[in-house]
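Supplementary Text 2. Reproducibility record for the structural model of the 628-residue chain.

All settings were left at their defaults, and a single model was retained for analysis rather than an ensemble. We include the record here because the model underlies the residue-level annotations in Supplementary Table 4.
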Amino acid sequence: MSAATETNATTRPFEADVAKLLHLMVHSVYSEKDVFFRELIANAADACEKLRYEALSDGSLLGEDPDLRITLTLDPENRRLSVEDNGIGMSEAELTDALGTIARSGTKAFMERVSGQKEGENSQFIGQFGVGFYSAFMAADKVDVVSRRAGSQEASLWSSDGLGTYSLSAIDLGEAPARGTRVTLHLKEDAATFAESYTAEHTVKEQSGHVPVPIFLREKPDAEPKRITDGTALWTRPKSEIDAQEYTDFYRSLAGQFDDPALTLHYRAEGVQEYSVLAFVPGSKPFDLFDPDRAGRMKLYVRRVFITDEAEILPRYLRFVRGLVDSSDLPLNVSREMIQESRALGLIRKGVANRVLSEMNKLTEKDAPAYTRVWENFGPVLKEGLYEDFERRDTLLALSRFKTTASGGEWRSLKDYVAAMKEGQSAIYFATGTDLDRLASSPQIEGFRARGIEVLLLTDQVDSFWVTSGLDFEGKPLKSATQGLADLGSIPLSEGEAAPAPASEEASSFIAFVKSTLGDIVSDVRASDRLTTSAVCLVAPETGMDRQLERLLASAGRLDKAAKPILEINPRHDLVERLSRLGDTETGLREDAAHLLFDEARIADGEAPLDPRGFSDRLARVLSRAAG
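Retained model, structure tokens:
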């Protein structure tokens, strides 16, 4: 591992994001330093797989060295360690793109999260954000990368101490691999053990023992390399020969995470299409889960030849699933773009998505607490499928879990909900909002509580969209408790609840007065059968959007004009009865009261008064009169 001969070296600064990440890697994320083994070997394996694919159309790229491999070389005396592959390699421009910038989504989220952590709290974050190559600086005070692209007559050296700049230069071909990449770590003093044979071999076998490329270990620069992993693809082995720890190790290497998978799927499909699947539902939530640019993380192989990790094998609402599909039928002699458009891959997509959802459903029955953890991590993403995937809506509704007015904070399925429906109840009721506690105590659901009717409390942003899709479960339509008429008259009150008295003539007259006073601020003012203890509430008209969806669209600048709400007044409320008895000489007070009731309803909905100055003036007048 002698130093390469540099020619025309140039020094360049890292992009700002890289510099910040490197600082965090060195000063914050320093427990579990051996993560760099897994990251560098994963990069090397990817390079070998890419060469295997490109060699299908250009066999000369393999030259006289067709056996792909990864080689670790140790130099304990000089505290050096190298990871070398004979894969596709990189040109000078590719080195700059790969190592001078951060492109992978989620890395910024990683940096923001880690910046606020204390020492020793960050080991669980490593590997979840595309840290990849930069993890080498946790153990090294200098890293050299020598690379030569397959078929090229040029080689380049990238070098950096991780302190803000890197150098890039062309080097003599004699100093570079015949093809591929060699990463050399000049280890820090406290990381010298990584250059020792036992530590290196044990760590590699534990973290990367199942990459589909054989790994060799050279215990010192002039020693003969020995094979320490055989490069057998785990997914090609029978399930009976694989234990849980092997699956976990493979998942961690594949997914770049340190958690345990919540669900493992390993099967071979036979029939019209033959393919193997090894997929995992993660045990924790990636920080880039809601990144709008985040795609699926399923790799596509054809007869163990890596094709792409951008095949979008699973629908977007299953983008948290990590794994691979290895097909026996897809053609190898066409472009990656044509493979993705093929009918065969369409059938594979359908089969894999159905199987993932089927296995998740089995988990609900076999281990309900485990599925609850999956739902808590990925429920908001799964619910995207309720308005994106018409074909699987029933399956997704069965998998969905909800907090409700009757669940005591626990998750409930729609099957549980339907089994507990009240006599005369024909719909599944829901309410959307942003805060669970405020939603549970909102005035709009008082009448439902009085009748013991369970209401789904939906607080994820996605909820406001999928509930508009006209869904039903087991023939029971989903209906908003905050939109249109409550229509509760056919459902008896719970035991101990007194039937409400009919509205008095004075109350009916006052409600009509409020309607005329508010004018076009509202679309209607009416007596409410959904209120029991509150005086007023706002509901959305029967047609159109729910008020929470309107708020979301308005905040995103995607709503030109909101619908006018309906003000519902509880004619049996003490305040309303008192206001109803005011005489014609109290017109000013009655007008102030009409506007204050409307603003009260807005405040209960989490909104500001429509006219803050007018609200303040009216409140001052009412308080002044009350004080005498």
